[in-house]
Amino acid sequence: MFPEFEVVPAVDMQDGQVVQLVGGERGTEKTYGDPVEAARRWIDAGAGTLHLVDLDGAFEGERKNAAAIDAVLDAVDDDVGVQLGGGIRTVDDAVSLLDRGVDRVILGTAAVETPEIVAEISESHPGSVLVSLDAKDGEVVVSGWTEGTGLDPAEAAQRYADRGAAGILFTDVDVEGQLAGVRTDPVERLVEAVDIPVIASGGVATVDDVVALRDAGAAAVVVGSALYEGAFTLAEATDAVDGS
């Protein structure tokens, strides 16, 4: 997974449309159109991986954008990786998606509530589970970033690495969607805590932010608002990483 640092475009879905939330708060979203059109746009721009999130599923606990996700999967070439999160709560949910063509499932709430789910899925589908550790005020939050867990991100990451997680997706909710820049300290702490890849997300506003997260040890960075708002292009971000 991510043998070289990669910039991964986000395709977050709510009510069948691409949206970006500010600080993880419902009601703050800005809409960016059809998910298939967005996916094709990023693939045409050179994306090697797409990051899909069913936001309705994340908030409500069951997948609400299955039709939109299926349409994206049908539109994606085999050489483009797909990681998907939001509303995946059971082993059967995860396995059905992996069998459908998703490369990696992202578990957040389910991993916190039932940690053994990570090992169970990893046993039958090695390398397929990313555990999402979304942090707000230094605490892991779940259920669409609405509920605190009392868990420290670095300590939690160690537990999931021991259970077979292929990687950790870390979202800094405090800066998510604000285009105000990233914080590298939490990412560095996670990278030091585990030997599996850490994928960073939240706050990216410039190509310098992308480079900073790479330098902090992240294996990849998920970018949403900055790409949709045209702060920089996918090619510019990739070139900045390759040239530094």
Short recap of the structure:
The protein is α/β, with parallel strands linked by helices. It has one domain: Alpha-Beta Barrel (TIM Barrel), CATH 3.20.20.70.
Structural topology:
Elements: E1 6-14, E2 17-22, E3 25-31, H1 35-44, E4 49-54, H2 55-60, H3 66-75, E5 81-85, H4 91-100, E6 104-107, H5 109-113, H6 116-124, E7 129-136, E8 139-142, E9 147-148, H7 153-162, E10 167-172, H8 185-193, E11 198-201, H9 207-215, E12 220-223, H10 225-228, H11 234-242
Parallel strand pairs: 1-4, 1-12, 4-5, 5-6, 6-7, 7-10, 10-11, 11-12
Antiparallel strand pairs: 1-2, 2-3, 7-8, 8-9
Helix pairs in contact: 1-3, 7-8, 9-11
Please, could you describe this protein's structure?
Helix 7 (153-162) runs parallel beside helix 8 (185-193) and helix 9 (207-215) packs across helix 11 (234-242). The two termini are 22 Å apart. The chain has an 8-stranded parallel beta barrel with strand order 1-4-5-6-7-10-11-12, surrounded by 8 helices. The protein has helices spanning 35-44, 55-60, 66-75, 91-100, 109-113, 116-124, 153-162, 185-193, 207-215, 225-228, 234-242, and strands at residues 6-14, 17-22, 25-31, 49-54, 81-85, 104-107, 129-136, 139-142, 147-148, 167-172, 198-201, 220-223. The mean pLDDT is 91. The chain is of the alpha/beta class and 244 residues long. It has 11 helices and 12 strands. Strand 2 (17-22) and strand 3 form a beta hairpin.
